[in-house]
Design a protein that fits this description.
Layout: H1 6-9, H2 16-38, H3 50-56, H4 59-75
Helix pairs in contact: 2-4
């Protein structure tokens, strides 16, 4: 039987704010970004053609998940 450190046994649950931040990132990742790509959304106002947009838009959820993950880990 493996023993866990005291810190691992005494983890606190996520706060409401942290939970809603994760849900917001999931909604952006699963609905907003794919919707922008499917609608032919180019970032031409920013100077990006369609092919570069296909590379840039999926990076948004990756960065958001990273930021929320670090934020929740530091705040716990």
């Amino acid at each position: 039987m493996a023993h866990e450190p005291q810190e691992a046994q005494a983890e606190r649950p996520l706060t409401d704010r942290q939970s809603w931040a994760i849900i917001a990132v999931l909604v952006v990742s699963m609905l907003v970004i794919p919707g922008l790509i499917l609608l032919g959304g180019t970032l031409s106002p920013l100077g990006l053609p369609w092919m570069d947009t296909l590379v840039a838009l999926p990076m948004v959820p990756a960065v958001l998940f990273a930021l929320v993950g670090v934020w929740t880990a530091v705040r716990r």
